[in-house]
User: What shape does this take?
Amino acid sequence: MKQFFFLFALFLSFEASAQMLPGTPRKKYLRPKKDEECAYVFNVTKNTDEEAEITASVTRLAYRPYAELLTEITELRRINNWADSTYQRKFQALPAGGMLVVTMYRRGAQNADPALLSVTARDKAGKELLAVPSLPEGQGRFWNRDLYMSKRSIPFVKIDDQQTVYVTLNDAKLKQDFEYVVNTQ
Assistant: This one.
């Protein structure tokens, strides 16, 4: 009887360790789940739940439309009493299609390097709208307990009408894909 329990516990430990190996595909939701932090993004893969926090591989995507970015710099101009040249410089730097903000949480500063991520965006027909082979590199900053956080903003392409865009973040170190559905504005 003791041998049976020992073998059963050994089997469970192998199964649990197999979940953390690089290259194992992420579990997916039955229907995409709305992100808590961004109303425009739906998570397809389960990558922000407790299991991902335990394995220290949380990756989040947020979409900020052009109108929201414009409202932000207009309010900052009013609050900070910016000169017209400062406002014009910020206005000219606004991406016409909005902005994607990628946030990754990893264990260890070297693992939170955004250069390990690549971004691909496709429309419903499968046409590639955006392809970023590697985000700008950098080290993560200490965030919580043993986690490090890196955040990068990517200018998004201008889309004529509101549509659904499928975004995939590929992590080269974990060899995993994080999938999202973004409703563009």
Residues 63 and 122 are 15 Å apart (CA to CA). The first helix runs from residue 2 to 18. The longest strand covers residues 99-107.
